[in-house]
Design goal:
This protein has 231 residues and is an alpha+beta fold. The chain folds into two domains: 65 residues, no CATH class; 166 residues. 49% of the residues lie in helices and 18% in strands. The chain has a three-stranded antiparallel beta sheet, with no helix packed on it. It has a two-stranded antiparallel ribbon with strand order 3-4. A hairpin with a 5-residue loop joins strand 3 and strand 4.
Length: 231
């Protein structure tokens, strides 16, 4: 018997007429079934796995952004989209997890890791989610044509918009490091919780496990809000 922090299986999407929702059924290999279990520590394990997914996503986006920087291709729409995705995934994980723990851990890092963490939070809250910041500015201008003699005349009137949200390589490397710190600690948590939950599941009668329905995820409608993660 093994305890797994994460496993990937095929999914079959179907529409449940009774629940009026699409449902994703998780299918194991032939000759086995997957049933969901709830034990005293299974919720903590699920939460840790969700956090790990957030920080792994942020790390992947950050490394993709670094690759775009290396290719000198980070100034376009792709670079902006990738960097914003990195920030959103990172901050979702931070605010859904044990924030005090991560703040204390970042404070142990050399350099300005803690200050960078605060900066990334401000980027998410003020730039990505809102626009009440100096990183986005617009202006109306008058273009003046100057003669050889230095006399000016009005040529045209226009507008311009400035957006500054992408970091240099140093800033992206800091986010990469913060993600790596959290991921390494979450992986330790998940390994420990997996052992505990595995022990708890072994105490459940096999007849009770057999009676449980197959593992499925209800896919919510876009206007439905899932229960918030514990903080």
């Amino acid at each position: 018997m093994t305890h797994l922090a994460e496993a990937n299986f095929d999914q079959v999407i179907r529409f449940d007429d009774e629940a009026q929702h699409f449902v994703a059924r998780v299918v194991a290999e032939s000759g086995s079934r997957l049933v969901e279990v709830n034990t005293p520590n299974s919720a903590a394990l699920r939460h840790a796995v969700e956090l790990l997914s957030d920080f792994k996503s942020s790390l992947q986006y950050t490394r993709l952004y670094l690759a775009l920087l290396a290719a000198e291709d980070s100034d376009g729409v792709m670079g902006s989209a990738v960097w914003q995705s990195a920030i959103v995934s990172y901050w979702r994980g931070v605010t859904s997890g044990d924030r005090k723990r991560w703040l204390a851990r970042f404070g142990e890092e050399p350099g300005d890791a803690l200050a960078a963490h605060v900066h990334f939070g401000n980027l998410r809250n003020k730039f990505v989610a809102h626009s009440d910041n100096a990183l986005q500015q617009s202006a109306v201008f008058a273009k003046l044509a100057l003669s050889v003699q230095g006399n000016a005349r009005l040529d045209s009137v226009g507008t311009t918009h400035l957006t500054v949200n992408a970091p240099n390589e140093e800033g992206a490397l800091v986010l990469e490091r913060l993600c790596e710190i959290v991921i390494s600690e979450l992986e330790v948590d998940i390994a420990h919780l997996s052992e505990i939950v595995t022990s708890e599941v072994t105490m459940i009668r096999i007849s009770e496990l057999e009676a449980r329905p197959d593992l499925e995820f209800i896919i919510p409608n876009a206007n439905e809000q899932r229960e918030s993660r514990p903080r």
